[in-house]
Specification:
246 residues; 7 strands; 4-stranded parallel sheet; 12 helices; 3-stranded parallel sheet; Glutathione S-transferase Yfyf (Class Pi), Chain A, domain 2; 50% helix; alpha/beta
Length: 246
């Protein structure tokens, strides 16, 4: 199995430990990682998508074209990157006028978009391509004895017809992957609540964002005895870490 590793911005810039974990573990599970040299921001929803659709689609196409040239699909850990790339590709595939304009712009830079590479989220690849059985057999240090709750990346659930690979109403894949490592997954009432870290919520209403997160943390504390929160999105990881300080 071979995938183009799309790291986005935050992982290499702020959390290189996440990149290191990916690079160390994926080959052990039979996944060859191809570096997508020259890739850019996904682009994040708070940048070009808010102001210039053609520019946004051009950046998405740029990233996709790099994977296409390597003959691989994209492996994405960040939920926001995954959604942005997936939505961008869907828009390009259904709007010929916009796609032709994007192709004209890419041609100037010597790039070519064909639509043959698909963004895949880390959860999707680990669950559907690798499988829990192989993961369980590959571990050297079991998480047995740990109780955990999981944070599903909301950008990997909705809109399900474009980004979905799990049941958006009752997702289970991330939890199943964690249990394959030996931990016990506990459930609670606010399990599907967004972390609140994307979309500018924190910057527009910091007090509201803190209260929003507090409700989630309170539910975890009151309804479980979890030792930790497992995430599969760099935005969720960074936000849930930092917001606790507030």
């Amino acid at each position: 199995m071979k995938y183009g590793l799309f790291l986005g911005c935050n992982i290499p810039a702020i959390r290189p430990d996440v990149e290191r974990a990916i690079r160390l573990t994926m080959p052990e599970l039979g996944i060859d990682l191809v570096d997508l040299e020259g890739s850019a921001c996904c682009p994040a929803y708070g940048t070009f998508p808010s102001a210039d659709e053609i520019a946004s689609l051009s950046i998405s196409a740029w990233n996709l074209s790099i994977a296409e040239k390597e003959g691989v699909d994209l492996l994405v850990e960040c939920g926001s990157c995954y959604s942005s790339l997936r939505m961008g590709r869907a828009n390009l595939m259904r709007d010929e006028v916009k796609t032709n304009r994007v192709k004209e712009l890419l041609e100037i830079a010597g790039k070519k978009f064909e639509g043959t590479a698909t963004p895949r989220h880390m959860i999707d690849v680990l669950y559907n391509d690798v499988g829990t059985t192989r993961i369980s057999s590959a571990i050297t240090k079991s998480l047995e004895g740990l109780n955990v709750v999981v944070q599903y990346p909301c950008h990997s659930l909705w809109p399900s017809e474009i980004v979905g690979f799990d049941d958006p109403g009752r997702p289970h894949m991330l939890g199943d992957l964690v249990e394959a490592l030996g931990a016990r997954v506990q459930h609670y009432s606010r399990e599907l609540q967004c972390c609140g870290g994307a979309g500018g919520f924190v910057h527009r209403d910091h007090k509201g964002a803190v209260e929003f997160a507090r409700r989630k943390f309170d539910a975890i504390k009151e309804e479980t005895n979890a030792d930790l929160i497992v995430v599969s999105c760099i935005t969720c990881l960074m936000h849930l870490d930092k917001i606790q300080e507030d």
